[in-house]
Amino acid sequence: MWGRQREAFSMYKRMSSRDHSVVMDVEDNSALFQNNMDVEVETTNPSWWLSFPHVVVATLSSFLFGYHLGVVNEPLESISLDLGFSGNTLAEGLVVSTCLGSAFIGSLFSGSIADGFGRRKAFQLCALPMIIGASISATSKSLAGMLIGRFLVGTGMGISPPVVALYVTEVSPASVRGTYGSLIQIATCLGLIGALFVGIPVKEIAGWWRICFWVSTIPAGFLALAMMFCAESPHWLYKQGKIAEAEAEFERLLGGSHVKHAIVELSKLDRGDEADTVKLSELLYGRHFRVVYIGSTLFALQQLSGINAVFYFSSSVFKSAGVPSDIANAFIGVANLSGSIIAMLLMDKLGRKVLLLWSFFGMTISMVLQVAAANTYVSGSGSLYLSVGGMLMFVLTFALGAGPVPSLLLPEIFPSRIRAKAMAFCMTVHWVFNFFVGLLFLRLLEQLGPQLLYSIFASVCMMAVVFVKKNVIETKGKSLQEIEIALLPQD
Question: Fewer Cβ close by (within 10 Å): the C or N end of the chain?
Fold first, then answer.
């Protein structure tokens, strides 16, 4: 080998200066051609259909989340009669809210589960308590059995939102990440609507509420099984030092021509501390404080905007208009789904920030309509139209941005090292505010009256517009590495 190298070197020395220039030109042209090829590969967007099946399977967890939120709404009366606590409002409230309380617990551990076991196994661990819990509820003979089942289901519900947001963000090409992120909200809406339709025969068929719980085990079982065949997050694999496996998953998700560039992008942010344990103190101050502050505040504003209050109060508003509760729920569901579909179509065209701004602004206008409806100077029919119209407009505009964007935006702006733990922290903030809004809304409505309370909600929505304008950056079309570099100074 050394003899061949020496021979080649002696030939090179015997070349004339003209021959040297020819060789250099060929080398330069080859290098230029290779660079052009690299640029072409990097600037061409990966095929969306490679990652699409993986995203669809992941969003089954969001469908289950929505289904379990709405599964007891229609059957609650039948459940209370069959299990012997009819007329006990505290017991009925526990059946509804137990899963929300355990969801808070699940969200606390979701980051550790996603980082410790990987994203795929986290989905399976999310599906398992949903299957067991729904089975216990479906076969329960007492209130205690129902509450145990709801508690287990809620644990899975708490793990689900941070994990699906992480997974969809990390497996999606930058060009369609916003569109895929919107599928989370759409799946949740479909789950709510699915629970509504499955519950329709509950008043005609005795014991149908048990079928409602059994039905949920089918998508949960499919999620646990299908995740065995889905790609693991390449970002998580890279953090674990499994570079070859990360390359293989990138090839499945993006195509072979994009693997090299994706790995190079990840390596730019490798600071050698990926395996270190992320402490809570790192999220609350220091260089990570800004992104965690933005994420937590967005979720707090989302809940304080009054969206849950609107959902809780919608039935009585529609009832005053002479609309039955099941039709009212259908109207709200259609408005929510329509807004989510529009958001999916616009997310990667207009961008996250624009949708957030116009969403919160539209919610402000909707709350102003609700304030006007509560005004004593407005006539009865006028008040009714304003109230119903304002409520539907509020749900529609919420679904355009304030609903889907935070769950998509947060995994994008969080650095890879803290992404799972930071999502878990922000989702915990979400559940805390969700709980207190649900707990205090009716009491505040009685003490303050609808006009003042809706004025407060309108003010919060306007504050959200200002906050988004000042603090949120646009992430449309950018890789996760580009976003991290833009937000955080490199050590």
Answer: N
Tokens 């410790």, located at residue: 116
Q: Which two tokens stand for residue 381?
A: 């029919």
Average pLDDT of the chain, as a whole number:
83
The answer for residues whose C-beta is within 8 angstroms of residue 130's C-beta and 6 or more apart is 64, 68, 152, 153, 156, 157, 216, 217, 220
pTM of the model: 0.82
Determine contact, residues 138/198, Cβ cutoff 8 Å.
no
Q: What does the pLDDT average to over 93-110? A: 88
Among 68-82, 138-152, 181-195, 321-335, the range scoring the smallest mean pLDDT is: 321-335
**What is the C-alpha to C-alpha distance for residues 389 and 181, in angstroms, rounded to an integer?**
28
Residues 105/155, Cβ–Cβ less than 8 Å: yes
* Gap between the Cα atoms of 138 and 115, Å rounded: 33
Strands (E), 278-429: none
What is the per-residue DSSP string for 20-52? Answer: HHHHHHHHHHHHHHHHHHHHHHHHSPPPHHHHH
The more confident residue out of 171 and 373 is 171
Could you tell me if 166 and 119 are in contact, meaning their C-beta atoms sit under 8 angstroms apart? Answer: yes
CA angle 330, 201, 62 (to 5 degrees): 50
**CA–CA separation, 278 and 293 (whole Å):** 16
Q: Which residue has the tokens 């590495």?
A: 481
Residue 35 has pLDDT above 50, yes or no: no
- pLDDT at position 321 is 64
- Assess contact for 176 and 48: CB atoms under 8 A: yes
SS3 at position 140 = coil
CA-wise closest residue to 143 among 93, 90, 84, 183: 84
Task: Transcribe 48-97 into DSSP letters.
Answer: HHHHHHHHHHHTHHHHHHHHHHHTTTTTHHHHHHHHT-TT-HHHHHHHHH
Distance CA 343, CA 26 (A): 51
279 three-class SS: coil
Q: Tell me if 405 sits within 8 A of 359, measured CB to CB.
A: yes
Q: Which is more confidently placed, 284 or 15? A: 284
pLDDT at residue number 47: 83
Cβ 119 vs Cβ 167: under 8 Å: yes
Mean pLDDT of 165-173: 93
Q: How many CB atoms lie within 10 A of CB 486?
A: 12
Arithmetic mean of pLDDT, 343-372: 93
Rounded-to-integer distance, Cα 446 and Cα 415, Å: 44
Q: What is the mean pLDDT of residues 269-284?
A: 63
**Pairwise CA distance, residues 72 & 92, whole Å:** 10
Which tokens in the block code for residue 287? 């260089």
Name the nearest CA neighbour of 134 among 197, 65, 193: 65
